[in-house]
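S.,

Sequence below, as promised.
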Amino acid sequence: MSDHAKDTGSPAPGGLDRLLDDIRKLSEDLGAAASPAPSRPRGTAHDVPAPAAVPSSPAAHMHDMVARAFATPEHAAPEEPPRVEETPPPTAEKADVRAVAERLLVIMSRPDSEATAQERALAADLLCAMLEKLPCGFHRLLVDRLCMGSAAHPALAVRLAELVSDDLAERLIMEAALPDPVLLRLLRLKRPFIATAIARRADLSAVIAAAVAMTGDAAAIGALLRNRGARLGPDLFPSLLRVAEEHPPLRPLLASHADLPPKQAMALFWHLDAAGRRLLLKRICGGGRSLKELLDIATNGRPAAVPRERLHELEGAIGALALGDVEGAIGQLRTLSGLDEALLRRIATDGGGEPLIILMKVLGYPRALLPAAIARLASSPASPFTRRPDPPDLQALFDALANDTARLAVLYWDSETRSQKSEARR
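The prediction came back faster than expected:
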C-alpha cells in the first residue's frame, strides 16, 4: 500500500488508479497458490464484482471492499439520475431582436436630411425579414408608424397585413399611404376582410375600385358604393349592376350613386321597390336642358304621344289589362307605341304598376281619366298589380314625372330589350 494511503487514510489526488493497481497485484500474489483468478480489463466498471459474488481469496475480498469504497463514475457505472427538463431562462436573444428592430425602425423613419431613400428601404427590408421573430406589440408599433408615414414600404406593408391580427391589418390597409400596386397585391391575400378594408379607403382610384368590384364580394362592393371618395369609372357599372341584381341590399346603394349612368339606372329600375324607383327617376333623369334635344335625335323626331283620335284605343288597352287580358292589351299597346312585344309584356305584368304609369305618360294618357283607370287596375282581381300599390302613389308618380324623363326610360328599356334579343339570335 502506498505511503500516502497509510498517512492520510485516503488516496492521493489522482492516485486512485495506482492504489487499485497495488491492491490487484497483492491479490494476485496471495491467491496464486490457491486458484488463479481470471484476468479482467482494468479501469472499467467490470472491476467491481456483483454483490452476490463469493471472493475467491482474502485478497480478492479486500480488493472488492476497497473498490466499492472508492468507486467513482470513472470506474463504476452509477445509476443514471432522473432527467430534468430545463426551461432555458429568458435569454437576451428576444431583447436583442427587439432592440435591433427598434434601431431599424428609427432609421426607416428618418427624414431625407438624415437618411437616403435607399437606406430607409434597406432598414424596411431588414425589418420585413425579422417580422416573425418580433412580438405582437412591436407589430402594432410598426402599423402605427406606417399609418403615420407619407409612404409605406410595399413589402413590409404586405407582410404585416399577412401576419398581424384582423383589426391591425384592417387599420393598416385603410390608413397607410399605399400605392395602387401594393393594394392590388393585398387583394390577392387570402384574408376575407381585405377587399372591404380597401373599399373603405378615403381615396380610391378607378383602377382599385374596379379590382374590388371584380372580386364579386357583396360586402366589399357595398363599402365601395358607400365610399364617396371612390372613383367609379363608367365601365365598372355593368359589373356592379350584375352583382346588385343578385344581392338586393346593394340595389338602393347603386341606385343612389351619383355616377350611375342612365343605361344601368334604367336596367336597375326593374329590381327596385316603389320608393327606389321614384328616387331613381327623380335623380337620374332630372330633365336637363339638353334632354329633349337628345330624345328628338334618338327618336328621329317622331312624336311619342298617341293622337287624340286614338286615345280610345289606349283606354281599351288599359281596360283589357284590368280584365286580365294581357295578350289583348299587349297587341293594342304595340300598335300604339311601336315598342318591342317582350318589353310591353314586362311593362304590363310588372307587379308595382310604375312601368305602366310611365308608358301611359309617354303615350299621353289624359290626366283627367287617370284616377279612374288606376282605381280599376288596382281593385280588379285580375289586375297585374300584384304588389298592390297605393293608387295615390301611382297618381303622384304620374304627376311628378316629366314627359321627357318618361320617354328616356322607355327608350332605354326598348333599346336594351332589342339588344338582348339580337344577342340571343347570334
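The chain has a mean pLDDT of 81.

Coffee later?
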